[in-house]
UniProtKB/TrEMBL annotation:
Keywords from the UniProt entry: Hydrolase, Membrane, Metalloprotease, Protease, Transmembrane, Transmembrane helix, Zinc
PANTHER family: MEMBRANE METALLOPROTEASE ARASP2, CHLOROPLASTIC-RELATED, REGULATOR OF SIGMA-E PROTEASE RSEP
Family recorded in the similarity comment: Belongs to the peptidase M50B family.
Molecular function GO terms recorded: peptidase activity
Protein name per UniProt: Site-2 protease family protein
Cofactor(s) named in the record: Zn(2+)
Transmembrane segments: 99-120, 324-345, 387-408
Subcellular location: Membrane
Pfam family, one: Peptidase_M50
Residue ranges of domain PDZ in the record: 121-214
SUPFAM superfamilies: PDZ domain-like (SSF50156)
Gene source species: Micromonospora parastrephiae
Biological process terms in GO annotation: proteolysis
Length: 416
């Protein structure tokens, strides 16, 4: 039930953000004097509406977005009343049209920034100094997390029959103990612990000094045997090595909470990382199509494959059910930022396509004036329709692939 409620809440958050996207177009268009005739949340049959001034506001039956109708978005619009011609959008200066067309994406960016700031002062943001590489992890203090057994590979999994019992557990060590020496060799970090253990053989007795709750202690245990690659070559051939049956508990916090003022700087840093990640994700989209097809046809789902709104809502539901509030908010932030960037791509029918054409017209008019030729006028959108249909087709197929993968083989972040 909690999962379903989380899905519904996340889907509602997406609907609100998309509706605000259209509101951004509407508000800026009205501010410049353009005529806006409709603003609706949803598509399909009208459920409820009212008219205020020259604009009809309402809700439609299919809650999958929204739209706002601005009179004369292109010079080819043939439904413009002659009385409205002076207020047709295409007649306005290019900078005003740019603001109106980019206002939707700007709204998404503003929503993301607000959510990042709120997370920074309440939930905390991911710590950029948290160790992620092998080199960084090995510099962490040797604070251990006990395993129930010794798993003979590097990938985490549940213990299976035949796995050796954890020597550390047999030695009465506990989660959170910090190993300070092995057989008299001082241990300053997790990397030194690994090196010391690799210097021993399976079946050797290891004398372990440790600190627990500030108090020193000593124990000993017989090391088990497992299979591991060399420490300096994680992809190398595996060989029998001694194992203690422990993992690392990073002492570096995974997230940092900021004060109201410091949160602005943290928001800027997080946004910069988010922007880089979003651009990289867009660049990888074509490469991920085969992985999506593999997931649909029964293969393992790559967690790095794109997700649809359906997939994002499912993950939001999981985060809500598991009280992973930062994940829930981060999903909302990432989705808004991605939509904002994607919508500015210079392709029709995206807002970025209209902006690109507006500036192309402006640049072409300037150039023709400089060379003494007549202004060629507006771009004929009708001639661009074949390209627009291709973009719509590619986008539709990609959306269908992601939705299908999210239904038949969804990404899940929490074990069930």
């Amino acid at each position: 039930m909690a999962n379903l409620l989380g899905v519904a809440l996340f889907a509602l958050a997406i609907l609100v953000s998309v509706s605000l996207h259209e509101a951004g177009h509407m508000v800026t268009a009205k501010a410049f004097g353009m005529k806006v005739t409709k603003y609706f949340v949803g598509f399909g049959p009208t459920l409820w509406s009212f008219k205020r001034g020259e604009t009809e506001y309402g809700v439609k039956g299919i809650p999958l977005g929204g739209f706002c109708k601005i009179v004369g978005m292109t010079a080819q619009d043939d439904d413009v009343d002659p009385a409205d011609e002076p207020r047709a959008m295409w007649r306005y200066p290019v900078w005003k049209r740019t603001i109106v067309m980019s206002a939707g994406s700007i709204t998404h960016f503003v929503l993301a920034l607000i959510a990042i700031w709120i997370a920074a002062v309440s939930l905390g943001l991911p710590n950029q100094d948290f160790p992620t590489t092998d080199a960084e992890i090995r510099q962490e203090p040797a604070v251990i997390a006990l395993s129930d057994c010794v798993i003979p590979d590097s990938a985490p999994r549940a213990c299976a029959p035949g796995d050796a019992a954890s020597p550390a557990a047999q030695a009465q060590l506990r989660d959170g103990d910090r190993i300070t020496s092995v057989n008299g060799t001082p241990i300053n970090n997790y990397g030194e612990l690994l090196v010391a253990l690799r210097g021993l053989k399976p079946g050797d007795t290891a004398k372990l000094d440790y600190v627990r709750d500030g108090q020193p202690g000593t124990t000993s245990t017989v090391l088990a045997q497992t299979q591991r690659p060399p420490l300096d070559d994680p992809k190398g051939a595996v060989a029998p090595v001694a194992a203690l049956g422990v993992g690392l508990v990073p002492t570096t916090p995974t997230r940092v909470t900021y004060g109201p003022v410091a949160a602005f700087g943290a928001t800027a840093d997080f946004t910069r990382e988010l922007a880089v990640g979003t651009v990289q994700a867009l660049q990888r989209l074509p490469q991920k199509v085969p992985a999506l097809w593999t997931a649909i046809t029964g293969g393992e789902r790559d967690v790095d494959t794109p997700i649809s709104v359906v997939g994002a809502s499912r993950l939001g539901g999981e985060a809500f059910a598991n009280k992973a509030w930062l994940l829930f908010v981060t999903l909302f932030i990432s989705l808004n930022f991605f939509i904002g960037v994607f919508n500015l791509l210079p392709l029709l029918p995206l807002d970025g396509g209209h902006i690109a054409i507006a500036w192309f017209e402006r640049a072409r008019s300037w150039l023709y004036a400089r060379i003494g030729r007549a202004d060629p006028g507006r771009v004929d959108y009708l001639k661009l329709m074949p390209f627009t249909y291709v973009v719509i087709l590619i986008g539709g197929v990609f959306t269908l692939l992601t939705i299908t993968a999210d239904v038949v083989n969804p990404i899940t972040l929490f074990p069930r």
